[in-house]
């Protein structure tokens, strides 16, 4: 090895280590990347990245797009949502999500709070909804989503402060970026039992979330409907509340 070359971390020396390093390089803010980006983020040589990505593509774990960039493939999403941690919740919620989708024709999601991010356990896309880049198993920031604000409003105060103090990224001119403003809104959400996001993550898109409660009455998930901002949210709020309450009754 020449003096200017750097040894790879021990955990990337094995085949599995290289595989995990490549998959771990993908994130919500880096869901589509070129091979050079994957190489940089994973710390692996470009030739290794090219070979392993090709193998993952053949299995369905990665997908190569027409412009030469790469993204997570459907096979990996399918495996991920089978995780035992959320399987029971996803199965119990499925008929309620299906009925809510049938009544709204909008994007309908079930989400949980996971490491101060919103993790989407299930997603049903609507024919009349705006396009939102979220898949089952994916995550989005809590402060810019209705599900995130609802779940964070019912989380411990230290979690709320941690999110507020870690830096609130701006996604649109309407994103809440001031910690004090976020904490005040969380108080309102907790009292009102519903949360909205109005063009805070994506322009032209709004969403409303209602709480799903577990056996002890604690909030364990959020049921949401996403819709275009020109459509009134009151009707969707009523429907998402009803379905979240019905699901909570079944889980109790």
UniProtKB/TrEMBL annotation:
It holds the Pfam family HTH_IclR. InterPro entries: GAF-like_dom_sf (IPR029016), HTH_MetabolicPath_Reg (IPR050707), Tscrpt_reg_IclR_C (IPR014757), Tscrpt_reg_IclR_N (IPR005471), WH-like_DNA-bd_sf (IPR036388), WH_DNA-bd_sf (IPR036390). Residues 75-252 form the IclR-ED domain. The keyword Disulfide bond does not apply. It comes from the Bacteria. SUPFAM superfamilies: GAF domain-like, Winged helix' DNA-binding domain. GO terms for biological process: negative regulation of DNA-templated transcription. One of its GO terms (molecular function) is DNA-binding transcription factor activity. The lineage of its organism: Bacteria, Bacillati, Actinomycetota, Actinomycetes, Kitasatosporales. PANTHER family: HELIX-TURN-HELIX TRANSCRIPTIONAL REGULATOR, ICLR FAMILY, HTH-TYPE TRANSCRIPTIONAL REPRESSOR ALLR. Keywords: DNA-binding, Transcription, Transcription regulation. This is DNA-binding IclR family transcriptional regulator.
């Amino acid at each position: 090895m020449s003096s200017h070359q750097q040894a790879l971390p021990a955990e990337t020396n094995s085949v599995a280590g290289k595989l995990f390093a490549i998959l771990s390089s993908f994130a919500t803010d880096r869901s589509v990347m070129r091979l050079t980006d994957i190489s940089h983020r994973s710390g692996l040589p470009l030739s290794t990245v090219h070979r392993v990505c090709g193998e993952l593509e053949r299995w369905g774990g990665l997908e190569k797009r027409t412009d030469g960039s790469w993204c997570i493939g459907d096979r990996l999403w399918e495996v991920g949502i089978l995780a035992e941690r959320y399987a029971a919740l996803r199965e119990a919620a499925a008929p309620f999500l299906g009925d809510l989708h049938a009544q709204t024709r909008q994007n309908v999601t079930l989400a949980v709070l996971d490491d101060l991010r919103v993790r989407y356990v299930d997603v049903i896309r609507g024919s009349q909804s705006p396009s939102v880049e979220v898949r089952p198993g994916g995550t989005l920031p809590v402060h810019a989503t209705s599900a995130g604000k609802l779940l964070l409003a019912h989380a411990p105060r230290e979690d709320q402060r941690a999110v507020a103090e870690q830096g609130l990224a701006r996604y649109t001119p309407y994103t809440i970026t001031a910690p004090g403003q976020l904490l005040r809104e969380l108080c309102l959400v907790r009292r009102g039992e519903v949360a909205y996001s109005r063009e805070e993550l994506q322009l032209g898109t709004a969403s409303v979330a209602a709480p799903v409660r577990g056996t002890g009455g604690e909030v364990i998930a959020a049921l949401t409907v996403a819709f275009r901002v020109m459509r009134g949210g009151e009707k969707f709020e009523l429907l998402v509340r009803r379905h979240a309450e019905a699901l909570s009754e079944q889980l109790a």
